[in-house]
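Subject: two folds for Thursday's group meeting

Dear M.,

Sorry for the delay on this. The cluster queue was jammed most of the week, so I only got both jobs back this morning. I'm pasting them in the order they finished. Each block is the input sequence followed by the predicted structure tokens. Could you check whether the formatting survives your parser before we put anything on slides? The first protein is the one we discussed after the seminar.
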Amino acid sequence: MTFFYSLLHNTFLQNALLAGVLLSIAGGIMGSYCVVKKITSLSGSISHSIIGGIGLFIFLKYNLNQGWADPLLGALLSAILSALLIGFTHLKYKSNEDVIISAIWSLGMAIGVIFASFTPNYTVELSNLLFGNILWITGADLIILLVLDLLIVACVIIFYRKFLIICFDEELAILQGLQVKTLYFLLLSLIAISVVLLIQIIGIILMLALLTLPAAIASIFTKKFSHMLLLSIILCCLLNLSGTIVSYELNWPPGPSIALLSAALYLTLLLKKKKKIILSHRRE
């Protein structure tokens, strides 16, 4: 039974591919900003610190019977809070930035693990968010992904030029009277939302692969940011589709399959580029 035959009859696969497209839009756009702004490490810190929110909401949902406490909501709230804390640290305490961000990262993970330990029979949701499981995507999840996608796209359209200025030249942004701090916090918040979206497909541990590698690959082919955005989204879609097919045919986990293909493609293209540069220098 081939992947495409199963796709016609399997709702889980259909939801997975549709989710992959929606996630690719958010990941491609915000990943491009991460790459040009050189804040991929901050994104990694956000992704790991949200374990605190996930663990807390799992505890509230199962131990205290709070039905509203969806772990994904906990992930979203803690991601935005972490983004704001990390952004404040980046702007205010640059000399001790690495240490403070590491403390936020460790604090979030520690809180999550402690709360999850109180609910040992219900940690499957935490496991899915740690390692990703796109085949668990439901119709309700797709609606949430679509709403968050529209929010990200709307903000980027409205603030496109301003985001571009603060990414490439903060001093120019200040001279033009832009609210640099506010825009920076907004950008980090949008990245935090993208992180939450991506962990559903590839998990917290491998999230950076899908957030940054398609954008990094796109930057090899073009230096124009608008083209980079579009190419990054297309690459995200293709890597999601390819990884899902590979995982289905070989019975591998989807998240690691997508991350493996992304890393392999990036390293291959990077080595080819380096080789081309070396050959060019030798000819000269």
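Second protein, same layout:
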Amino acid sequence: MADRRLPSLPKVLVLLPTYNERENLPVIAERLLAYGDLRVLVIDDGSPDGTGALADEIAATSQGRLSVLHRSGKRGLGRSYLDGMRAALATDAEFVFQMDADLSHDPKYVPDLVAAAARHDLVIGSRYLQGVSVVNWPLRRLMLSTFANWYVRTITGMRVRDCTAGFRCWSRDALARLPLDRIVSDGYSFQVETLFLALEAGSTVGEVPIIFVERRVGASKISGNVIRESFVTPWRMALRRAFGRRQSPQPPRYNSPAS
């Protein structure tokens, strides 16, 4: 695959949480590592299908550009990202990406988000900036997602079109301002809480249009608990704002394997 370098932006680290993504991981890792100098941190939640072991194999041949963080204890998307973000802040990364490992977020958009990061502290790969840009979702899932974004915007007052998006590029400074030790959301509402806290901390947020493609293999991680948490989190954020519970970001306290 051709080497597509990111000119003058060598310090990009992609956080890639995994749970049973053995079939998808080699594909997305190859596509990401095709960008010269970009690094990847796989954060595996003890996948029973052997994703973590496969990630170690890929890391061994990546010349140090792909590292693996094996998590134990409490699992979940939010917990994985928090550990990954602490790890990222322990490196020299200037831009930190959040991406799904199931190929729903196409690596071809990475340069677009990096370019927009020159103007914004946080850039979101948006499914709803230009109408609806989602492929292969059933109508029920699409209605749930569009309603969720309307619901979040209505309750919190945030003006971002895709508040629940998981494809994001953080500047190091914006990420460092997040109070990581005080974030409690775990499922997809983690995206809502971190976006809210970024805006509260004064970060500027931009959106770049992407086309989101539903996973081709593997199973979705959405559960009833995730949906219930998603309904509660916007109200918690709104109450936080109403009662002025502004909190100072905590310094990172983590030693990362992705150095």
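Two things I noticed about the second structure. The chain has one domain: 12-242. The longest strand covers residues 12-18.

Cheers,
T.
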